[in-house]
UniProtKB/TrEMBL annotation:
One annotated GO molecular function: glutamine synthetase activity
Annotated NCBIfam families: gln_syn_GlnII
Described function: Catalyzes the ATP-dependent biosynthesis of glutamine from glutamate and ammonia.
E.C. number(s) listed in UniProt: 6.3.1.2
Top enzyme class: ligase
Protein name: Glutamine synthetase
Residue ranges constituting the GS beta-grasp domain according to the UniProt record: 3-81
Keywords: ATP-binding, Ligase, Nucleotide-binding
Family: Belongs to the glutamine synthetase family.
Family annotation (PROSITE patterns): GLNA_1, GLNA_ATP, GS_BETA_GRASP, GS_CATALYTIC
Domain GS catalytic: start-end pairs: 88-332
Length: 332
C-alpha cells in the first residue's frame, strides 16, 4: 500500500513569492525523502541548470486527502545542498537558535480577501457595496461573504494540527482573518505557510480565489495586513522589556518596513487603522500606531506587543527574523 505526500514549497517570484506543490506517492511506512523540481518553471533556476532540491522541514496530516496522507513543507536548496537564494527560512534558523533562550513567541493575524469574477466576493458587478461599517465580525447574508469557505479552511487547519487561534470577518466585504500562534519563530512561520496553502486549496473547491494583496481595492476600503504579535519570556513577566522592545523596533524601523511586504506604502497611509510607513510610533490601545501595546498588557504590566505594520503578503520567515533579531539583540 501507499500514501500521498503533497510537497509544498515557496517559489522565486518577485517581489512576492508564491506557493507551489506536487504529489509524491510513497510506500506505506517510508520516510519523507529529499525530492526535486524544475526550478526554471518557478523563477528559481535557468533552463540549463534547472534542478532544485526539496528538503522536508515540516509535515502534518493532509486534511483534504485524509487517511495517512500528509502535507510536507520543504525548504528549497541548490544541488550542492546550500540554501537557494529564495530560501528565507534558512536565514531565520540561526537567529531563532541564537535567541532561543529568550523564548520568543509570535501570533500572526493573517488577513486576506476572496475574489470571484475579478472582484472581491460581495462586491456587485460594476459597482460598490455599501460603505464599510457593518462587515467587521458581521452576521447575515448582506454583510458576510464566503463564510462556508472560511469554516472549511478552519476545520482543515485544525485537522492538520495547526495552531489556529481564531478567525473573524474583516472590515471590507470579502475580507477575512485567521490567527496562528502563539508559537516559536520557525513553528509560526512554517504553520502560516501551510495554512496559506490550505486556504488557496480549499477556496479552489468553492470556485473562489484568496489573495494576500495588501490593498485589493483602492479608495476608502481597508487594506489587508498581517499584524505580528510578539513576546519574549522577559516581556511576559514585566513591563520594562515591553517598552524596550517598542524602542528597539523604532531604532530599526526603516529596515523593518522595507521588508514587511511589497506595496507597503499603499497600505500604511495613516488612514484605515494604520500609521504612515514613514513614521514610527507606539502606544497603548492605539490602532493608529505602528506598534500597539494592548490595553490588557498595560493593565497587567506584562504580556506582548502588536506590530501592526506587516502587510498580508509579508514573508513570515522574514518578519519573525527581523523582530527577534532587533528586539533580542537590543536586550543583550
Ligand atoms: P486583535 O485584537 O489585534 O485583532 P487577535 O485576537 O486577532 O488580536 O490576535 C492576537 C494574537 O496575539 C493571537 O494570534 C494570539 O495568539 C497572539 N498572542 C497572544 N498572546 C501572545 C504572546 N504572549 N506572545 C505573542 N503572541 C501572543
Ligand atoms: Mn515533466
Ligand atoms: Mn485580529
Ligand atoms: Mn484584522
Ligand atoms: Mn491586530
Amino acid at each position: 500500500m501507499t500514501y500521498k505526500a503533497e510537497y509544498i514549497w515557496i517559489d522565486g517570484t518577485q517581489p512576492t513569492a508564491r506557493l507551489r506543490s506536487k504529489t509524491k506517492v510513497l510506500p506505506d511506512g517510508a520516510e519523507l525523502p529529499i525530492w526535486g523540481f524544475d526550478g526554471s518553471s518557478t523563477n528559481q533556476a535557468p533552463g540549463d541548470k534547472s534542478d532544485c532540491v526539496l528538503r522536508p522541514v515540516f509535515s502534518c496530516p493532509d486534511p483534504i486527502r485524509g487517511g495517512a496522507h500528509v502535507l510536507v513543507l520543504a525548504e528549497v536548496e541548490l544541488v550542492d545542498g546550500t540554501p537557494h537564494p529564495s530560501n528565507t527560512r534558512a536565514a531565520l534558523t540561526p537567529i531563532a537558535t541564537e535567541y532561543a533562550s529568550a523564548e520568543p513567541l509570535f501570533g500572526l493575524e493573517q488577513e486576506y480577501t476572496f475574489f470571484k469574477d475579478g472582484r472581491p466576493l460581495g462586491f456587485p458587478s460594476g459597482g460598490f457595496p455599501a460603505p464599510q461599517g457593518f462587515y467587521y465580525c458581521g452576521v447575515g447574508a448582506d454583510e458576510v461573504y464566503g463564510r462556508d469557505v472560511v469554516e472549511a479552511h478552519l476545520d482543515a487547519c485544525l485537522e492538520a494540527g495547526l495552531s489556529i487561534s481564531g478567525i473573524n470577518a474583516e472590515v471590507m466585504p470579502g475580507q477575512w482573518e485567521f490567527q496562528v500562534g502563539p508559537l516559536s519563530p520557525l513553528d509560526v512561520a512554517d504553520q502560516l505557510w501551510v495554512a496559506r496553502w490550505l486556504l488557496y486549496r480549499i477556496a479552489e473547491n468553492f470556485g473562489v480565489t484568496a489573495t494576500l494583496d495588501p490593498k485589493p481595492v483602492q479608495g476608502d476600503w481597508n487594506g489587508a495586513g498581517c499584524h505580528t504579535n510578539f513576546s519574549t519570556k522577559a516581556m511576559r513577566s514585566s513591563y520594562d522589556p515591553i517598552i524596550s522592545a517598542c524602542e528597539a523596533l523604532g531604532k530599526n524601523a526603516e529596515e523593518h518596513v522595507r521588508n514587511y511586504g511589497a506595496g507597503i506604502e499603499n497600505r500604511l497611509t495613516g488612514s484605515h487603522e494604520t500609521a504612515p510607513w514613514t513614521e514610527y510610533s507606539y502606544g497603548v490601545s492605539d490602532r493608529g500606531a505602528s506598534v500597539r501595546i494592548p490595553w490588557q498588557v498595560a493593565q497587567d504590566q506584562k504580556g506582548y506587543i502588536e506590530d501592526r505594520r506587516p502587510n498580508a503578503n509579508v514573508d513570515p520567515y522574514v518578519v519573525t527574523r527581523l523582530i527577534t533579531d532587533t528586539v533580542c539583540s537590543a536586550a543583550h
